[in-house]
Amino acid sequence: MYDDILLPVAPGGEANDAIPHAASLAERYDATVHVLSAADTAVDTLAGPRTGVFSDRLADAAEERVEAVTAELEARGVETVGSVVRGDPLEVIENAIDDGADIVVMPSHTRRGIRRLLLGSVTEKVVRVASVPVVTVPMADPEEAGSLPTDSGETEANSADTGEAGDREPSDAQ
Protein backbone atom coordinates (compact mmCIF):
# COMPACT_ATOMS: atom_id res chain seq x y z
CA MET A 1 0.00 0.00 0.00
CA TYR A 2 2.78 2.41 0.93
CA ASP A 3 6.17 2.14 -0.74
CA ASP A 4 7.54 5.62 -0.01
CA ILE A 5 6.87 7.40 3.27
CA LEU A 6 7.80 11.08 3.58
CA LEU A 7 8.99 12.18 7.01
CA PRO A 8 9.69 15.93 7.09
CA VAL A 9 11.90 17.00 10.00
CA ALA A 10 12.79 20.47 11.22
CA PRO A 11 16.41 21.56 11.47
CA GLY A 12 17.82 21.32 14.95
CA GLY A 13 17.70 18.65 17.63
CA GLU A 14 14.04 18.82 18.57
CA ALA A 15 12.35 15.54 19.44
CA ASN A 16 9.88 14.26 16.91
CA ASP A 17 7.16 11.86 18.00
CA ALA A 18 6.37 11.16 14.33
CA ILE A 19 9.55 9.11 13.87
CA PRO A 20 8.21 5.93 15.55
CA HIS A 21 5.00 6.22 13.53
CA ALA A 22 6.93 6.43 10.26
CA ALA A 23 9.09 3.49 11.35
CA SER A 24 6.03 1.40 12.21
CA LEU A 25 4.43 2.08 8.82
CA ALA A 26 7.69 1.31 7.05
CA GLU A 27 8.06 -1.99 8.91
CA ARG A 28 4.47 -2.98 8.20
CA TYR A 29 4.55 -2.15 4.48
CA ASP A 30 8.25 -2.80 3.83
CA ALA A 31 8.51 0.82 2.71
CA THR A 32 11.32 3.33 2.42
CA VAL A 33 11.23 6.39 4.68
CA HIS A 34 12.36 9.58 2.97
CA VAL A 35 13.65 11.87 5.71
CA LEU A 36 13.47 15.43 4.44
CA SER A 37 14.45 18.75 5.95
CA ALA A 38 13.81 22.11 4.33
CA ALA A 39 16.44 24.77 4.94
CA ASP A 40 14.21 27.82 4.56
CA THR A 41 16.02 30.22 2.26
CA ALA A 42 13.81 33.18 3.08
CA VAL A 43 16.72 34.41 5.18
CA ASP A 44 18.77 34.60 1.98
CA THR A 45 16.64 37.54 0.87
CA LEU A 46 17.53 39.58 3.92
CA ALA A 47 20.34 42.09 3.67
CA GLY A 48 23.30 42.11 5.98
CA PRO A 49 26.80 40.78 6.32
CA ARG A 50 25.85 37.77 8.48
CA THR A 51 22.85 36.57 6.51
CA GLY A 52 24.86 34.00 4.53
CA VAL A 53 26.40 32.62 7.72
CA PHE A 54 22.95 32.20 9.26
CA SER A 55 21.66 30.45 6.15
CA ASP A 56 24.66 28.08 6.13
CA ARG A 57 24.15 27.28 9.83
CA LEU A 58 20.52 26.50 9.17
CA ALA A 59 21.47 24.15 6.32
CA ASP A 60 24.10 22.48 8.54
CA ALA A 61 21.52 22.00 11.31
CA ALA A 62 19.11 20.50 8.78
CA GLU A 63 21.80 18.10 7.56
CA GLU A 64 22.64 17.02 11.12
CA ARG A 65 18.95 16.43 11.89
CA VAL A 66 18.44 14.34 8.75
CA GLU A 67 21.54 12.28 9.55
CA ALA A 68 20.37 11.68 13.15
CA VAL A 69 16.85 10.63 12.16
CA THR A 70 18.17 8.47 9.31
CA ALA A 71 20.55 6.71 11.72
CA GLU A 72 17.70 6.17 14.22
CA LEU A 73 15.50 4.58 11.56
CA GLU A 74 18.31 2.48 10.11
CA ALA A 75 19.05 1.17 13.62
CA ARG A 76 15.49 -0.22 13.57
CA GLY A 77 16.16 -1.88 10.23
CA VAL A 78 14.13 0.63 8.21
CA GLU A 79 15.35 1.54 4.73
CA THR A 80 15.86 5.30 4.58
CA VAL A 81 16.87 8.07 2.21
CA GLY A 82 17.81 11.44 3.63
CA SER A 83 17.90 14.83 1.97
CA VAL A 84 18.11 18.53 2.71
CA VAL A 85 16.56 20.95 0.25
CA ARG A 86 16.85 24.72 0.41
CA GLY A 87 13.54 26.47 0.01
CA ASP A 88 10.17 27.23 1.53
CA PRO A 89 9.20 24.23 3.71
CA LEU A 90 5.71 23.90 2.24
CA GLU A 91 7.02 23.98 -1.34
CA VAL A 92 9.80 21.51 -0.51
CA ILE A 93 7.28 19.08 1.00
CA GLU A 94 4.83 19.52 -1.90
CA ASN A 95 7.63 18.76 -4.37
CA ALA A 96 8.60 15.65 -2.42
CA ILE A 97 4.98 14.47 -2.54
CA ASP A 98 4.92 15.10 -6.29
CA ASP A 99 8.13 13.07 -6.61
CA GLY A 100 6.30 9.96 -5.45
CA ALA A 101 5.58 9.92 -1.71
CA ASP A 102 2.60 7.68 -0.91
CA ILE A 103 1.99 9.09 2.58
CA VAL A 104 3.36 11.87 4.78
CA VAL A 105 4.02 11.43 8.50
CA MET A 106 4.79 14.62 10.38
CA PRO A 107 4.51 16.21 13.80
CA SER A 108 1.87 18.70 14.74
CA HIS A 109 2.45 21.20 17.51
CA THR A 110 -0.60 21.84 19.65
CA ARG A 111 -0.40 25.59 19.88
CA ARG A 112 -3.60 27.39 20.75
CA GLY A 113 -5.02 30.86 20.68
CA ILE A 114 -3.02 33.80 19.39
CA ARG A 115 0.21 31.78 19.07
CA ARG A 116 -1.51 29.40 16.64
CA LEU A 117 -2.99 32.29 14.68
CA LEU A 118 0.31 34.16 14.42
CA LEU A 119 2.68 31.25 13.92
CA GLY A 120 0.54 29.09 11.67
CA SER A 121 1.69 25.59 10.92
CA VAL A 122 3.47 23.95 8.03
CA THR A 123 1.66 20.76 9.03
CA GLU A 124 -1.74 22.41 8.73
CA LYS A 125 -0.83 23.71 5.29
CA VAL A 126 0.42 20.29 4.16
CA VAL A 127 -2.83 18.67 5.36
CA ARG A 128 -4.80 21.17 3.25
CA VAL A 129 -2.78 20.80 0.03
CA ALA A 130 -1.45 17.23 0.04
CA SER A 131 -2.62 14.82 -2.64
CA VAL A 132 -1.72 11.84 -0.42
CA PRO A 133 -2.74 10.86 3.12
CA VAL A 134 -1.09 12.86 5.90
CA VAL A 135 -0.65 11.32 9.34
CA THR A 136 -0.10 13.99 11.95
CA VAL A 137 1.33 13.18 15.35
CA PRO A 138 0.55 15.71 18.09
CA MET A 139 3.49 17.09 20.02
CA ALA A 140 3.18 19.35 23.02
CA ASP A 141 4.40 22.92 22.68
CA PRO A 142 7.55 23.06 24.85
CA GLU A 143 6.16 26.08 26.70
CA GLU A 144 2.91 24.24 27.37
CA ALA A 145 4.27 20.74 27.98
CA GLY A 146 1.69 18.53 29.56
CA SER A 147 -1.26 20.73 28.61
CA LEU A 148 -2.55 19.18 25.41
CA PRO A 149 -5.96 20.46 24.36
CA THR A 150 -8.77 18.04 25.08
CA ASP A 151 -11.22 19.41 22.54
CA SER A 152 -10.60 17.52 19.30
CA GLY A 153 -11.48 20.69 17.41
CA GLU A 154 -8.31 22.32 18.71
CA THR A 155 -5.88 19.62 17.66
CA GLU A 156 -4.37 19.12 14.25
CA ALA A 157 -4.19 15.36 14.69
CA ASN A 158 -6.21 14.10 11.79
CA SER A 159 -5.57 12.47 8.50
CA ALA A 160 -6.14 14.57 5.42
CA ASP A 161 -7.26 11.46 3.59
CA THR A 162 -9.80 10.04 6.02
CA GLY A 163 -10.55 12.84 8.44
CA GLU A 164 -10.11 10.35 11.27
CA ALA A 165 -8.31 11.13 14.51
CA GLY A 166 -4.55 10.82 14.12
CA ASP A 167 -4.01 9.30 17.55
CA ARG A 168 -4.39 5.76 16.24
CA GLU A 169 -1.40 3.52 16.10
CA PRO A 170 0.19 3.68 12.63
CA SER A 171 -0.21 -0.07 12.27
CA ASP A 172 -3.98 0.55 12.14
CA ALA A 173 -3.66 2.84 9.11
CA GLN A 174 -5.03 1.23 5.97
Write the layout of secondary structure elements.
Layout: E1 4-8, H1 18-29, E2 32-39, H2 51-75, E3 80-86, H3 89-98, E4 103-109, H4 113-119, H5 122-129, E5 134-139
Helix pairs in contact: 3-5
Task: Provide a descriptive summary of the structure in words.
The chain is an alpha/beta fold and about 170 residues long. It is about 35% helix and about 20% strand. It has helices spanning about 20-30, 50-75, 90-100, 115-120, 120-130; strands spanning about 5-10, 30-40, 80-85, 105-110, 135-140. Strands 3-2-1-4-5 form a five-stranded parallel sheet, sandwiched between helices. α3 runs parallel beside α5 (about 120-130). Mean pLDDT is about 75; it is low at about 145-174.
Mean pLDDT value: 77
Please describe the biggest sheet, giving its number of strands, its sense, and whether it closes into a barrel: 5 strands, parallel
Which radius of gyration do the C-alpha atoms yield? Answer: 16 Å
Number of helices: 5
| Unreliable spans | 145-174
Short description:
With 174 residues, the protein is an alpha/beta fold. It contains 5 helices and 5 strands.
Looking at this protein, list some descriptive labels.
alpha/beta, 174 residues, 5-stranded parallel sheet, single chain, 5 strands
